[in-house]
Each structure stands twice: as C-alpha cells, then as structure tokens.
Amino acid sequence: MAARRHHRTGPWIVTDLLLGLYHRLPVAARSAAATLRGYYLRRWRYGADSERLVAEALEREHWSAEQWSTWRASHVAALLEQAATRVPYYRDAWQARRRAGDHASWELLENWPILEKEALRQQPRAFLMSGHGAVFQEPTSGTTGTPLSIGKSRSALRHLYALAAARSRRWYGVLPEDRCARLGGQLVTPLDQRRPPFWVWNGAARELYMSTFHLAEDMIPAYLDALTRYEIRCLTGYTSSLYALAQGVLRAGRVDLRMKVAVTSGEPLVEPQRDIISAAFDCPVRETYGSTENVAAASECESRGLHEWPEVGLIEELDGEFICTGLVNDAMPLIRYRLGDRGRLSPATEQCPCGRTLPMIAGLEGRTSDLLVTSDGRRVFWLNPVFYGLPVRQSQIVQETPQRIRARFVPAPEFADSNGETIVERLRKRLGDLEIVLEPVAELPRSSSGKVRHVIRADNK
Predict the structure, then answer these.
(1) Could you tell me if residue 4 is inside a domain?
(2) Are 326 and 211 contained in the same domain?
(3) Domain-located, residue 244
(4) Which residue from 195, 230, 277, 318 lies 20 to 30 Å from 102 (Cα-Cα)?
(5) What is the mean pLDDT of each run of 10 residues along the chain (461 residues)?
(6) How open is the CA angle 93-95-96, to the nearest 5 degrees?
(7) Is residue 361 located within the same domain as residue 381?
(8) pTM of the entire structure?
C-alpha cells in the first residue's frame, strides 16, 4: 500500500487518506501495491545472514539447561545496564530513585517495577535507546484500547524472522516455495465490499493476504475457491478466522483443500476449534503465541508442546499473568512489561517428547481484560467451556452490568431451545444468579484489528 515515511523510522505509515486511495485502486493494482510493500519489508526482515541465524536457532533448541541459564544471565545483564543508562524513560526513573535515597541495584531484574502499557502509550519515544539508528515503527492491533507504536531495529527483525522460519516453517515442513495464506486484520479490501476478491496477492512473500472482516457465511465459498486457485499449502491467521473458514469447508463438503499445516495466532486455541480446523483442511493444527511488542513468543511442536522462544524475551508468571522482559529488540527495551495475557508456565524440569529443550508454556488463557466480575466481586476468566459440545459456531459473552450478561452466538442449524437453556445454566453455575440474555446472530462483530473478542465487559471496552 502507498504510505508515508517518517523521520528516523523505517515503516510505511498508512494514513486514512492513503488507505482510501488504495481502496480505489483496481484489484490488480492492489496486489501490485502489496507486492511492492512486501519487497520493502523483506529488506528489513531478511539479509545475507538469515540462513546462519536460522541454523543457530535450530541448534539452540537442544541446548542444556546450563547453556540457557548462562545465555539468559548475560543477555539480561547487558540489557539492564543499557536500559538504565541509555533509555530516557528508565534513565530518568533510576535517577529519580537515587535522588530519593533508593540505592537498589539496577543489575537485579526484581528491582525494576512492572511497566504498564499506559506509560508506553503516553511517551513511546522515551523508550527508544539513545544513539540507536533507524527503527521500524510497528503499531499494535489495539484490540482493547489505543494502539501502541513499537520501534524495532533491523537486527531485531532479522532475528525474529529467522526464529519464525526455524520454529514454524521448518518445524511444520513448509518449504520456501510453498504458497501460504494469511487471514489478518489489515483492511486490504474496503469494509463495505460485498463481492470478491477479499484478498490481495503479495508476490514478494508468496502470500495470499485475506481479510478477516468479510468472513460472512455467504462470502466464505469465494475464500475457499481462492485457496484452490492460488494453490495454497499453508494457512495462518487468527484462531476465530481459521475456525470460521473451516466451518465453511465442512458445510460445503469440500475435500480439495488439503494443507500442510494450519497455524493459529492472536487468540487461544481450544480443542473443538483444533478438531474442526484439522478435519476441514486434513492437516495438523499448530498454535503459536506472540505479540507486536516482541517480548514473548512460542510455537507448538509435533508433540503438542508449546515451546517458548527464549531469545525473544523472559516470561515471569505472576498470579497467572505474564510479565515479560524483551531480549531481542535492542531499539526499544521493554522491561517487566505487563503484556496483558494470562497463562501458565510449565515447570522448568518438564521435558517434551519432541526432544527439544526449549522451555514450555503449559496453557494460554487469553487477555487479562477477558474477564467478568460477579456481583460479589469474583473475577472469572475462563468461560470457553460454556459452549463446549453445543451446536454453536462462534460465541461472545458481554457483561452489560454486574447483574446482566448477554451471550451472543452464531447457531448451527441444529441448535435447539434446550441448547440455549444449557448455556444459561452453565453461565449461572460460573457467575451466579443473574439475568442472561441469549442473542443468536448471523456473525459476530470483529475489533478494529479483525479479531473476535470472546469476552467484553461494558466498563472495559
């Protein structure tokens, strides 16, 4: 897409005006614009050393615990020293602590306070390392609030994409010549467009980028035809989007859409979704975890172990919440950052049958904002089981007041009144005796990033 370059940064910033101009382009020109942008991004993400970085990443997968401990200690020490002396936000904070008589050492991670997103949102440039060269500015999705702008160095991007090549494409048998499709939240097609194509072809990345905003039941057949026409062998995207697409495959009875792998991201993957996606595309389904802030990342192996990428960041689990320290992005260090995700880390001694020694995440539970508060003050996080085993294609729970819950859902044809009664019963078992409104819909609304928010609290939109 056409865009404007800003001083000292490397991305193309797409404004509303430029996006409108892009949407007026003929279909072929949109794909040409996507391909040009793809070549531009490739210069940031890949270089002459990319294959070496991939090989080194694969080698580290079998390091001993002692090797990882030594590596982590040296990288954390260097990070804390540089952040305390060269990053304006942290430098000012430590100087203020010294003036107040605080002599705590910045060499110990536990002496650093937890960093909230609001601080980063209010003064993003204060987190850029002084003296650093050009950075690539990438916005977060802004699912639960105003997007953040994250500055990344060329070195960080090349390490990240080497890790992705090693621990997703290589693990899953995806070859460089294989064509992939991505269901993402970029507005590659005008929102009000009702006829295909709902995608653009990025020739530089050999990727079909498909809009998540047009996955209505009557439009999904066009998506499936495009997957066949472009000879797609690998699917990636938000879990809810892949699930919606898979349901369309099964409804149509299509058997010509075999993939090597379907890779989910952006939203937790539950077993019923995995089963449907796998059945539709006749392939394994692998879960991945990450964020635009690049302070934590993980991917699932063939043994279904969700392995951390330790090079990206250090994850602390505090009361079920992930607090992360980024290690890969030297341009914008984020230390003890409250990412907003909930999950559980596996014990350090746990070994995966795949033989890799990378640490593991035992489970992902979604965003910390994906919670409901009951009338007696309890905080309830995990509500997916409410819809397990029911003829429901997608669901969303909205807490409108402490006493009223709205359960939106896309029913399958066989949905019956008794299934609605089961939803009400299960919600009351978890939340107490409160008013529950059932709202069957044709499709669920998506956020500005193209994701489906499964839990919404009216006072935390």
Answers:
(1) no
(2) yes
(3) yes
(4) 318
(5) 38 63 91 95 95 97 95 96 97 97 96 94 91 81 62 95 96 95 87 89 96 86 97 93 93 95 90 95 96 94 97 95 96 94 92 96 76 66 72 86 89 92 86 89 74 72 49
(6) 65
(7) no
(8) 0.81
